Amino acid sequence: MKFSSLNECAMPITDEDIVEAMKKIPGYLDITPSDFMEVYQVAFDHALSRLRNAIHAEDIMTRTVIYVHEHTALPDAVRKMAEHNVSGLPVLKKDQTLSGVISEKDVLRQMTEDKNLSFMRIILQCLENSGCMAQGLKKRIASDIMTSPPVTVTARTRVFEIAGIMDRFNINRVPVVDEGFRVMGIIARSDIVKTMC
Hints:
With about 200 residues, the protein is an alpha+beta fold. The protein has helices spanning about 15-25, 35-55, 55-60, 75-85, 105-110, 120-130, 140-145, 160-170, 190-195, and strands spanning about 70, 90, 100-105, 175, 185-190. It has two domains: about 5-55, no CATH class; about 60-105 and about 140-195, Roll (CBS-domain). It starts with 14 loop residues before the first helix and ends with a helix.
């Protein structure tokens, strides 16, 4: 899902809606429905612009972050993702600073040489071959497969910028870090969609 336009989040307004709204305003309005629609569109665009600049990462981030450490066994990291129903999580160093991010894509990438990575391709390969393709991952640790350096934002990064970062890097979540690169929170794509709609 691209975040290029917020207008998709708004309900469409029909001519009938405009006429009915104009009837409810007491007194005489010297304005046509098309003029009213033009004023509405300008006001809507202005409100969106204001919101784009007013909402920051710290306003929408999840502050309780599920994470693993660099030396966490990969099966334990995958179990944590499954138990918390998340498709990715931060990987921390011993000093609790961010080292990387591990995602479903990172795990799937380790299971196949196929460049056209998709969950269904992995399932197909599992069905066509004997044994589980994930067996080779049992002895690995989180830092073996994490994406590093991670893409991050700060608490003051504007939500609209975060949406652009997610699109540019094709990621579904981004850690929010402080000046010391410690994780303060995390923002998922769904958090941004809720904010914009």
